[in-house]
Amino acid sequence: MINFQYSRATDVADAVRQIAADPTAKFIAGGTNLIDLMKDDVERPSRLIDISRLPLNTVEVDPDGGLRIGALVPNSDLAYHPLVETRYPLLASAILAGASQQLRNMASTGGNLLQRTRCAYFYDTTTPCNKRVPGSGCSAINGLNRGHAILGASDSCIATHPSDMCVALAALGATVHVTGPEAQRTIAFADFHRLPDSTPQRDTNLRPNEIVTAVSLPAQRFTTNYSYLKIRDRLSYAFALVSIAAALELEGNTIKDARLALGGVAHKPWRDGDVEAALRGKPATRTTFTNAADLLLLDAKGLEHNTFKIELARRGIVRTLTQAANGTPQTQSNKKIQ
Ligand SMILES: Cc1cc2nc3c(=O)[nH]c(=O)nc-3n(C[C@H](O)[C@H](O)[C@H](O)COP(=O)(O)OP(=O)(O)OC[C@H]3O[C@@H](n4cnc5c(N)ncnc54)[C@H](O)[C@@H]3O)c2cc1C
Ligand code: SF4
């Protein structure tokens, strides 16, 4: 039994004040990840600051035509929100590929960003893990690493970020809004999650005293040519081995703009600007998509059990871009692509 205090934040300023006063406290939103971590003795917060009743649960159109999503909007509400279904269907698809209906009802937008890795050693307190106990070693590098990173890993940690929603947010160029004791600031989604380097205990660039208040999306929505493909060991209720969010803007058969982000392959949702640039101006063909996949995976590195993920990602990228080009999200149709 872990002893901890419980308090409820009355507003955002109060939440920030409370967390600043106690460096070992944790915010709790839906609790779907944090409570599991506490039960497994991975997280031992001295205090839970309940933020679930803060007024951060609305989805609103912002003045420049984008969308502002409150940090406490539940994953289900977000996926089925009419503005998301019609304007950002890629995001709706990605959210619905994650977890289960019950979990999505509880899980919050902010909590989804901050959920921790599913590396089994991270949850097993009898094994060394640099993310859980810095400097103790990484059990996965020479252990069971079938689900681990093929891009951006380090000698300290090869864990992956498990979120589906975040892969779509990365592809759509989201911005994270945070509030700290001194100020509010925004963080580009690409800079929110970190690569492990030598400090894998830090998943994100959120500062210890800051709270996520919202996530915003730009006006550009990719409503026609998009697809989210999640490849996993079973069809539902499983984390991704590899997932791919693809979105294209086409002029005839020419790619005007492209977005491509991968999940399950790195410590953060993986988006590569060079690959997107290489897609622009090219015809939407299998050759173009195969070249994009090869470029994205140029530096991919497999370990004993996860090398298969490189080929899986390569094929997944081609298939997802093909689905996006065809306007056939989540299907296997590739009739129109030569
Ligand atoms: C069995 C199972 C299967 C799952 N499958 C998937 C899946 O396939 N795909 C997927 O994407 N996800 C999956 N999930 C993860 C689930 O989506 C996350 O647990 C959920 O999104 C976390 O949200 P929460 O509100 O419950 O977070 P909490 O558990 O309340 O918090 C998680 C972390 O975020 C911090 N936090 C929460 N809100 C804020 C905030 N506003 N500002 C700062 N810090 C904050 C907390 O302090 C804590 O550290 C699964 C979870 C379970 C249990
Ligand atoms: S991969 Fe990362 S999370 Fe997993 S055991 Fe190694 S250090 Fe820990």
Describe the structure.
46% of the residues are buried. The radius of gyration is 20 Å and the shape is globular. The protein has 338 residues and is an alpha+beta fold. Helix 11 (273-279) runs antiparallel to helix 12 (286-296) and helix 12 packs antiparallel against helix 13. The chain contains 13 helices and 12 strands. The longest helix is centred in the last third of the chain and has 19 residues, at 308-326. The strands form 3 sheets. Strands 4-5-8-6-7 form a 5-stranded antiparallel β-sheet. Strands 9-10-11-12 form a 4-stranded antiparallel β-sheet, sandwiched between helices. The chain has helices at residues 12-21, 34-39, 75-79, 82-87, 89-96, 101-106, 109-114, 120-123, 165-171, 189-192, 273-279, 286-296, 308-326, and strands at residues 5-8, 25-28, 47-50, 59-61, 67-70, 175-179, 184-188, 211-217, 226-231, 242-251, 254-263, 270-271. Strand 2 (25-28), helix 2 and strand 3 (47-50) form a beta-alpha-beta unit. Flavin-adenine dinucleotide is lined by residues 26-34, 36, 51, 71, 98-99, 103, 106-108, 110-112, 114-115, 162-165, 211-212, 239.
Q: Briefly, what is this?
A:
The protein is of the alpha+beta class. It has helices at residues 12-21, 34-39, 75-79, 82-87, 89-96, 101-106, 109-114, 120-123, 165-171, 189-192, 273-279, 286-296, 308-326; strands at 5-8, 25-28, 47-50, 59-61, 67-70, 175-179, 184-188, 211-217, 226-231, 242-251, 254-263, 270-271. α5 packs antiparallel against α9 (165-171), α11 (273-279) packs antiparallel against α12 (286-296) and α12 runs antiparallel to α13.
